[in-house]
Structure prediction request, 786 residues.
Amino acid sequence: MANTKDIVYGLYNDEEDLLRAVKQAKADHLEIMDVYTPFPIHGLDPILGLEESRLHIAGFIYGAIGTLTAFGGMTWIFTKDWKQIFGGKPHWPVPSFIPITFELTVLFACVGMVITFYVINGLGPGVVNPTIDLRITDDKFCIAFDKSEVNAAAAESFLRSSGASEVHSKTI
Amino acid sequence: MSAHISDIRDPLVLGHKTYHDITEDLVSPTERPPGMGWTVGLILSLAMLAFGLFCIAWTVWHGIGTWNLNRTIGWGWDITNFVWWIGIGHAGTLISAILLLFRQKWRTGVNRAAEAMTIFAVICAAIFPGIHVGRAWVVFYFFPYPNTRGPIWPNFNSPLLWDVFAISTYFTVSLLFWYTGLVPDFATVRDRASGLRRKIYNFLSFGWTGSAKHWQRWESLSLILAGIATPLVLSVHTIVSFDFATSIIPGWHTTIFPPYFVAGAIFSGFAMVLTLMIVTRKLLGLEEYITIAHIESMNKVIVVTGTIVGVAYLTELFIAWYSGYVYEQFAFFNRAAGPYWWSYFGMMFCNVISPQVFWKKSWRRNIALTFFVSIVINIGMWFERFVIIGTTLARDYVPSSWSYYSPTWVEIGIFLGTMGLFMTLYLLFCRVAPVVAIAEIKSILKTAGDQYTGPNKLHHGHDDHGHGHDSGHGKDHHLKVVSSNIGAGTAGTMGAAAAVREGESFITESEVEQQPKESGISPKEATQAQPDNLKKIEGIGPKIAEILNNGGIYTFAELANTPVDTISELLAAAGPRFQMQVPESWPEQAGLARDGKWNELKDLQDRLDGGKYV
Prediction:
């Protein structure tokens, strides 16, 4: 691969050890490359300094596009493109449009958000991401440092002293 | 974790699982060769599916005339089955979306399978509108698209068209929601596999890594999908009910239909979830993840929604009488006393009477009874749709067109075929995907695992600061159970778990063998004195409290009298992760706690940093 990284990582056995270690690393001004966990850890984001996800804003925008598409589309069809009278109703029967408008709002918001989620995460069918450790999706909690960003020796000693059960180096 | 855990709530993960145990238990069904039951089930399902496909082909080839529909009875088994399947498809999204918003932890045990069931049920449902139009090959006329026929557009005023949008949206959203939840679990399966299997699961897992940012977005996505899927799931059956309620047929033309249909859908959906889960947990050995507590929770939903449905039936009858509208009155009289009286009473018995058994706690927790009632409800909800559709249409405004409708073999065959399809898909799903959401079970382990909550938990009381000297009383206190999952050692957990399930105070042999021998301190079987909540000492959490208990330290007095070096040895013996602990202040803190000097202890703890002297 073109851009490989030399990393050093530690594996912790419990999420509470991980949280303590991340806090410690922040206090020691060690630049963490990433943290990998088998399940979402509550309280990790603020410690790690992750900003709140803006996915919901994207979702709102997609939903609004869905609303406009549905309502605008039906309005155009029934008032401009092909006027028809159904059961004596007006050409622009707003209450009748509400169910489909709602459904398309939900559909657009959902599909848009899911696609955005995979695109911004760099995930998708056929994507092969480097595996740091096979047990990260099982029961290990991992803190990884990029050796080009931190002093490798300092990072390694930090991992050992903060309770990591294993410390390894790897090129990914 | 200082989250308050109620002891009243049943634990949701039994067997003192570690994270690794969870992975092992939930992934292994996809790794071992299928059992005899599965193979026989699949063959049977495929046979039913094949017959169903044959009947669908027969219908398309010969036309709708092969069904016993006529000019008056325009809908029969087709739409009955459609509504029945759609109703079943409501529990999955309800469990995953509404229960997520309500923070109901028991959803984690059943959400994956329930969502899968939803998707398969919606597929089965969608077959019926597709073929009942007669010319199935132009079924895409349903959708508005620019065409060369004018362009001519569908009628956006029609609830039938709303239904097309509602069901397409529901299917898409459910599928995406389900798959997004599956991605991390497919990564777990991938990381245990090799060769081609690893490649396949890497493809399915989309290259998931478990990065913190990905998890954050994943949670955000799940929450918002839940938020928008909640009104969606309510809208879908509301719109299905509009198919009937906006017509001018007596018996259909009622404003009660939307809430009544939604309650009925949840009711039938949970019944089907129970039917499937009771079989699945047994066959795959998942009793520790889909527990009696889960079944009881679902039975509570059943009794509530079943009673709502019952109230709706009675309201319909009352309003028919009260309206003074003779056609409406006749429609309901005809349902109960006409030629289809048996389906009306079947419906009343199955849907209103049978779920009432679940008012009794011991019956809610009875698996055989639950299984039986869930089947009865599935049948009853089919009757409900048949009562609404079949009996109403058989007696319309014009007596000269009254007739008796019963299905042909083709209609029955198609229904059997959808059951075959449903079971085929479900059986395949059980083989390729973890039936219980692995990551979600892990995330509730610390708050709902039976070693952390409930009568069998391994430590005493919880972190309720400022409520007297020690929290929790009663027999839990004498429970001296040794954790067998300290550090990395996980073997033998199962045996230990089985032994302590009854809340007895003893240590099993296997546990004693696992004690850290190097420490030189033998574990006590029980102390006569009331044990103290050692977690009141700064630096001691539930895990370390266990380690100290294993080392024979149960009370503040015992801790106060233990040299720091001995504590360090105990910790070192428990595993590398505890070596980092600095217990230097623990005896001093324990001394204050023993003497009841809580204010002084608090002052000391304010000065300490994580239990260390500053």
Summary: Chain A has a mean pLDDT of 89. The first strand of chain A starts at residue 6 and ends at 12. Chain A has five helices and four strands.
